[in-house]
Amino acid sequence: MAAERLTPGVLYVVATPIGNLADASPRSIEALKSADLIACEDTRTTRTLLARYGISARTVALHSHNERRAAASLIAALREGKTIALVSDAGTPALSDPGAWLVAEAHRAGIPVSPLPGPSAAAAALSVSGFPAAQFLFAGFLPASAGARRKALEALEGPWPVVIYEAPHRIAETLEDLRQRFGAAREILIGRELTKKFEQVARMPLGDTAAWLTSERTQGEFVLVLAPGSERPAAALDAERVLQLLQEKLPPSEAAKLAAKITGEPKNALYRKTLKS
């Protein structure tokens, strides 16, 4: 995309390298050179990329703590005919990164939004997992608290790979929660520091992950790809209805226990549903 052809008044959503700066596409570099403004998750991080390619465009911060406030001024600039490039620290904006609110506001304002696709940690990890992926589930970052994380895992079972992002200080806990929830035999792909100098890609059963972590570096961001599970029993699709009917005749704990046997859903999850009803 030549610089002179960048359309005024358009919000460009620009994917940037997830580690190796050489992965920036020529089209993304041209867009960043030509933009009137670059909205960045962290201006300091983006300036490293801009310096690599000699780009001097003006940058403004747009992160999780200021996105709604910053979006208003950016939408105003777009209405005036300014061209804005939206980037995150790494990868594709709005995928477990800020940007979705600004994009939604642009749509609501009738402002054109154009993607400049490129690096994505989820796609990179999935491509080297070897798991069949006619479809996959992108879970992003799981909740930080142990209880909320374990509850979130209950929704991930299915005949598809699951992509999870995780920080180094929680990786051991998350892998252990995955082992307890899905069993030691289920395989997982662990990607660490993808595209960077100390990149690691390892596929193994969940039962082997604790030993692997003790022998490897744990700095840097992790991307996990959980192997596909089995199809859910058809009855599990209507677990709440089964539970509702049983609750009419049985105490909550007994209803949850029997509903779990009928549908294949986790007993604890069903019991929690009885407490909310």
Describe the structure.
The chain is α/β, with parallel strands linked by helices. The chain has three domains: 3-119, Cobalt-precorrin-4 Transmethylase, domain 1, CATH 3.40.1010; 122-226, Tetrapyrrole methylase, C-terminal domain (Methyltransferase, Cobalt-precorrin-4 Transmethylase, Domain 2); 234-276, no CATH class. Helices cover 38% and strands 17% of the residues. The chain has eleven helices and ten strands. The chain has helices spanning 26-34, 43-52, 67-79, 100-108, 121-127, 146-153, 171-182, 209-215, 239-247, 252-263, 267-276, and strands at residues 11-14, 37-40, 58-61, 84-87, 113-116, 137-141, 162-166, 187-192, 200-205, 222-226. A five-stranded parallel beta sheet has the order 3-2-4-1-5, with helices on both faces. Strands 6-7-10-8-9 form a five-stranded mixed beta sheet, covered by helices on one side. α6 links the parallel β6 and β7. α3 (67-79) runs parallel beside α4, α9 packs antiparallel against α10 (252-263) and α10 (252-263) crosses α11 (267-276). The radius of gyration is 22 Å and the shape is globular. The protein starts with 10 loop residues before the first strand and ends with a helix. The model has no long low-confidence stretch (mean pLDDT 91).
